[in-house]
Amino acid sequence: MSQDQPRNALVLGAGGGLGQAIVARLLTDTSIDRIIAVSRNGRTEDLSGHWISSDRLVWIESEYDEPAMAEVVEQLASYKGTFSRVCICHGLLHNDTIWPEKRLEDINADALHEIFHANTVIPSLWLKLLHRLLVGKRRCVVVALSARVGSIGDNRLGGWYAYRASKSALNMMLKTLSVEYARRVKNVKLISFHPGTTDTALSKPFQASVPKQNLFSTAFVADCLMGIMDEAEVDGQLSYVDWDGKTIAW
Ligand SMILES: NC(=O)c1ccc[n+]([C@@H]2O[C@H](COP(=O)([O-])OP(=O)(O)OC[C@H]3O[C@@H](n4cnc5c(N)ncnc54)[C@H](OP(=O)(O)O)[C@@H]3O)[C@@H](O)[C@H]2O)c1
Fold first, then answer.
1. For ligand 1, is residue 145 a contact (CB within 6 Å)?
2. Which pLDDT tens digit goes with each residue over 69-101?
3. Which of 25, 149, 162, 213 is the most exposed place for a label (fewest CB within 10 A)?
4. Whether residue 68 has its Cβ less than 6 Å from ligand 1
5. Could you tell me if the CB of 90 is within 6 A of ligand 1?
6. pTM of the predicted model, to two decimals?
7. Assign residue 141 a region: left if phi > 0, alpha if psi is -120 to 50, beta otherwise?
8. Is 169 in a helix, a strand, or coil?
9. What is 7-242's CATH superfamily?
């Protein structure tokens, strides 16, 4: 595949703990020309000075309704065929009004809708909207941040209905997208990625029960992810892997 154009990277939902760490890690990779980050919020001034100084970082503020997302994609038209890395980092487990369900009485229609929208609908819409931008000769690896709790085979503990089901649904959307991408966007490899329990706002309320050695820093996970993206073969298949590159059962 052609490697003579600049390599660019796209990070969607870049304002969260993992999104920021992935942007920071990409900025240390001098083979990447430009990093485009999309978030509902303004650029975070953080992380070893890379952010503020780097003119390689383009930060776009956007909401995630489909017209706004389409506008972002339109804005990026001149980057067609140049992306070698895309990371979709959206994820919602809890907020001011939503808490992961412990028992079936906690299941709530509004919470299910909100969690499915953030975790399944938005990543799927990005992949719908991006295909024309990604198609080309350049090898491009697209990762969506999923979670091991989305594995139906691995579900022994129960609970967390909305989050689990939204990640299983994300995996099915990605699998189905991978079938069509294999026909229409042959240069793209799709990966559904479990970062492990990582020290971010999303996991904060649940960290007390996690042994210290099993709670990862965002920088460690971003490093692992870049290694996995470097090694990934463009095979027309969806891979579902953890931070260690190990395959997770569906
Ligand atoms: N941390 C962990 O232990 C862990 C474990 C397994 C899987 N994951 C997955 O890793 C990914 C990143 O999570 P994180 O730990 O970095 O969490 P985080 O710090 O809470 O970041 C959440 C991200 O999701 C986006 N987001 C939040 N609410 C949203 C909504 N209502 N609609 C659309 N986007 C929304 C944010 O985008 P903006 O930039 O627009 O704010 C932000 O990038 C998620 O998919 C999560 O499920 C995390």
1. yes
2. 999 999 999 999 999 999 999 999 999 999 999
3. 213
4. no
5. yes
6. 0.96
7. beta
8. helix
9. NAD(P)-binding Rossmann-like Domain (3.40.50.720)
205 CA distance to ligand 1 centroid (A)? 14
Q: Is the CB of 118 under 6 A from ligand 1?
A: yes
89 C-beta closer than 6 A to ligand 1: yes
Q: Is 82 in the pocket of ligand 1 (CB under 6 A)?
A: no
**Residue located via tokens 């209905």:** 161
Instruction: Indicate the top mutation candidate among 25, 39, 60, 90 to test ligand 1's pocket, ranked by most ligand atoms within 8 A of CB.
Output: 90
Alpha helices (H) in the chain, listed in sequence order: 17-27, 50-53, 66-75, 109-116, 122-134, 161-184, 218-231
Q: Is residue 100 lining ligand 1, measured as CB closer than 6 Å?
A: no
Q: Which residues pair with residue 60 across a beta bridge?
A: 38
Query: How does pLDDT run across 140-172, given as a tens digit for each residue?
Result: 999 999 999 999 999 999 999 999 999 999 999
11 neighbors 37 (Cβ within 8 angstroms): yes
Whole-number Å distance between alpha carbons of 7 and 187: 14
Return the structure tokens found at 36.
């485009």
- What residue spans define the domains of the chain? 7-242
Nearest CA to ligand 1 atom 44: 91
